[in-house]
Write a structure and sequence with these properties.
The protein is 17% helix and 29% strand. It has 155 residues and is an alpha+beta fold.
């Protein structure tokens, strides 16, 4: 699936607020917002053939079975990713976290969600790498290949 020029919609969920982007300019601005100025440190990104809907929308909730969770901490210069694919036949349930083979005890642990879960240190990536992966996902609709992955957890 390619986001640009196909009628695909990028939906980003910031603190239960749904933002949509359809054009390359809108998508670029939304990617910048996700990585450099998020309304919440942990957000969800969906690339689908229509806008996602919340449970407050008529006909909602509606979202694809694939999503990218992005933890972005511009003040630290770090972020982390979690890819989940719940479609039937997905490889191993396809839940993976970003993987930084150079992570060590100085690498920050980042929040996975608002419920007290944290990414492992090895999921933390320099923010520029997170931005590349988010841009790739919004362009392709598939799991980004610009970063390494390892088994993650559902949440």
């Amino acid at each position: 699936m390619t986001a640009t020029g196909t009628g695909t919609v990028v939906t980003v969920v910031f603190q239960h607020i749904y933002r949509y982007a359809r054009t390359p300019g809108e998508i670029g601005a939304l990617v910048h917002r996700i990585v450099e100025a998020p309304l919440d440190p942990v957000i969800y990104v969906h690339v689908w053939d229509r806008p996602c809907l919340s449970n407050r929308d008529p006909g909602g909730p509606a979202a694809p079975l694939v999503r990218l969770r992005v933890a972005s901490y511009p003040e630290l210069g770090w972020g982390a990713l979690n890819w989940a694919d719940a479609r039937p036949g997905a490889v191993d349930g396809e839940v993976v976290d970003s993987f930084n083979p150079d992570a060590d005890e100085r690498t920050p642990r980042l929040r996975f969600d608002g419920e007290g879960l944290w990414f492992p240190r090895a999921a933390s990536l320099p923010l520029a790498r997170v931005g590349e992966a988010v841009e790739e996902y919004t362009r392709t609709g598939t799991r980004p290949t610009s970063v390494q992955w390892r088994p993650g957890h559902w949440c």
